[in-house]
Amino acid sequence: MMNDTKAAVVPVTQPFLPPLEEFMPWLEQIWKNRWVTNDGPLHHQLEQALCEHLGVEYISLFSNGTLALIAALQALDITGEVITTPFSFVATTHAIHWNGIKPVFADIDPVSLNLDPARIEAAITPATRAIMPVHVYGNPCDVEAIERIAQRHDLKVIYDAAHAFGVRFRERSILSFGDMSVLSFHGTKIFHTFEGGAIVCRDAQMKRRIDQLKNFGIQDEVTVIGHGINGKMNEVQAAFGLVQLQHVDATHAARARIDQHYRERLAGVKGLHLHRMLADSSANYAYFPVLVTPEFPLSRDELYAELRARQIAVRRYFYPLISAFPAYCDLASAVRENLPVAEQISQQVLCLPIFPMLEREVQDRIIDIVLATAVARAA
């Protein structure tokens, strides 16, 4: 194993930054336009480019993904209760709370790690108005089962698709399912605009409503039609997105190579379960999660500590569960007995570094540490 005592910190992910010279002409265009925000020409250009790339018809850009989640719930006039997953980043549930809606947690499926449709149905009450599932790690939810549940109970479905940029299910964009899908373009994501996000919706009328909501509810110079917010993406973000989009296929290919190398070298390691995408769906390689099960010589937290001590900044996505945070742990649905699978997965999951600039030598160092630590502990 390599001597790693003085190695630089290796993050679990790192934003891809294209060559600066590619970005400069776009900045010059912004200066020439004298239009820096508020529905500018580059904003429109990026919306159109994303529609074409993702295979969707209507998309509305936001300054970040959390505001997009909040606005999506507003646009559909959701009240009452929303069923969601405890196994996600906390912004998913925060968006529900900020709308004055009660989040209701349901357990996850042990294979996909997404909301379990059977547990969704069991959580429905007379106050339920919507479901907010998350495509965790870009792995598609059981969209067909969720659609049947939503139709049976007259519920809206808003997908948190923060991890799911470019994912397809049965030759169809995963973003085309449900009433809306919400993307994150945060710097840690496959495609990013420094900060940013978007809502994918189904028709032009809803896009107009979303566009008004993210611009203070303004309809025209003298008319405000609703309680909007300031969620607009500025022109610099849009310009960066246009540059990023030119590299997204190459970054996807680089991530795929890293994913494959992990799988080749870690295959068959007792106690390490390598999470895989479900059948009929395409992978975007947004994350590389492994489950550290009891058969592994170290616990998940012990392996986490060993890697961290050697400057490998692995992350326990997602631990603790959202339902365990003080803001939500008093909810009846947050009790551990209601979420046994999510609780178990949160105690086992560990995300290893994966990003386009991760060099093979560094990746091998990470793998060597995992393997050597396991051998040493088992001896």
UniProtKB/TrEMBL annotation:
Family stated for the protein in its record: Belongs to the DegT/DnrJ/EryC1 family.
Gene3D superfamilies in the record: Type I PLP-dependent aspartate aminotransferase-like (Major domain)
Origin: domain of life: Bacteria
Keyword list, A-Z: Pyridoxal phosphate
Active site: K189 (proton acceptor)
InterPro entries: DegT/StrS_aminotransferase, PyrdxlP-dep_Trfase, PyrdxlP-dep_Trfase_major
UniProt GO MF annotations: pyridoxal phosphate binding; transaminase activity
Stated name of the protein: dTDP-4-amino-4,6-dideoxygalactose transaminase
SUPFAM superfamilies listed in its UniProt record: PLP-dependent transferases (SSF53383)
GO biological process, one term: polysaccharide biosynthetic process
Species of provenance: Paraburkholderia eburnea
Modified residues (N6-(pyridoxal phosphate)lysine): K189
